[in-house]
């Protein structure tokens, strides 16, 4: 019996996922070498937690689609996963979604406390741009940093989170009231980082 299409896709992507996971471990070891140990531990706990790595896979696959070698996309793949992970750490905080579990494990703030979780998220966000700057030729790094900042920032992922919190009554403002408003939330909160990964 043939395996379902979704399983065969993930089976085919497994080598790329392993390459992304190895690159994440390597980047964290390199760039967090001077971090205080509790900070490095909290960053690693969140960044290296089990996951599909969808956003970094999109970066690798986009590179391959235009004839590039997948290794050339690993700095971008790592950077986008660091930004995604920072967003999850912050989204889980009591002031935001107040989640106890993420990817089947206690959330970062449940394991390390709110202060260290905030700082681990901050460190992952800034480290993403360091990884791009160190891992890409200067022109590619500049364009990639600008693209990632745009996708993650006020007009992208962070803006989408604000709109989502507005809908929940946690942030003042006019919540989305129709399908177009809901689509705008998701276009920003989720779609913007997908787009950045592909670009």
In oligomeric terms, what are we looking at? single chain
Beta strand count: 2
The unreliable regions are none
Strand order of the largest sheet: 1-2
Query: What level of helicity do the residues show?
Result: over 70%
Span between N and C termini? 38 Å
Largest sheet: 2 strands, antiparallel
What integer value in Å does the Rg equal?
17 Å
Question: N-to-C SSE series?
Answer: HHHHEEHHHHH
Percent strand: under 5%
The assigned structural class equals mainly alpha
Shape by Cα distribution: globular
Q: What's the number of helices?
A: 9
Name the average pLDDT. 95
Tell me what you see in this structure.
The mean pLDDT is 95. The protein has helices spanning 5-31, 37-47, 54-65, 74-91, 108-112, 114-135, 138-152, 157-167, 179-198; strands at 101-102, 105-106. Helix 7 (138-152) packs antiparallel against helix 9 and helix 8 (157-167) packs antiparallel against helix 9 (179-198). By secondary structure, it is mostly helical. It is 71% helix and 2% strand.
